[in-house]
Amino acid sequence: MQHGAHLPYRDTGRSADQGISIGWLNVQSLRNKTDAVEKLVRDRSLDVLALTETWHTDSDDVCLRLATPGGYAITDVARGHAGGGVAVIFKKSLKCSRVPVPTSSTFEAICVRLTSARDQVVVLNVYRPGSEKPSAQFFDELTS
Question: 118, 137 in Cβ contact below 8 A?
Fold first, then answer.
């Protein structure tokens, strides 16, 4: 990624009853954007950043560590082959517990419960590959 390049980031802001700042980014390959993702987290003072289309194939992938600023941790679901992959970067001051989600063939997902001394939020990060209209199977799996 070139210096100063823009990431198509969506800021979900701070909710009225939650003091946790959350953002979402379809990163379309974390490998060449680790510096930009780390800068985004710091510049926006995010507590949590959900990433889709990381394109990482293993939880030990170095791109996950490089994109995670000091004072933050990351949890992920790797795709195992090209494309896809989801992750959640979060401040280490938040207690993170994974929430199990059923296996799906039509989308990738990671769900976490993040807790601070005052706040709690559940983040469900979903990525549905492909540009075709969602199938009935997708909605059945999402409902479960």
Answer: no
Distance CA 122, CA 54 (A): 21
- Beta carbons of 38 and 49 less than 8 angstroms apart: no
Q: What is the CA radius of gyration of the chain?
A: 15
Residue type, 100: P
Condensed to tens digits (0 to 9), the pLDDT of residues 41-67 reads: 999 999 999 999 999 988 999 999 999
pLDDT digits (tens, 9 = 90+) for 96-144: 999 999 999 999 999 999 999 888 999 999 999 888 899 999 999 999 8
Can you give the pTM of this predicted structure?
0.84
From 112, 106, 109, select the one nearest 139 (Cα to Cα): 106
Domain ranges across the chain: 9-143
- Which CATH number describes the domain made up of 9-143? 3.60.10.10
Torsion of CA 61, 123, 93, 55, to 10 degrees: 10
Q: Are 10 and 44 in contact (CB under 8 A)?
A: no
3-state secondary structure of 38: helix
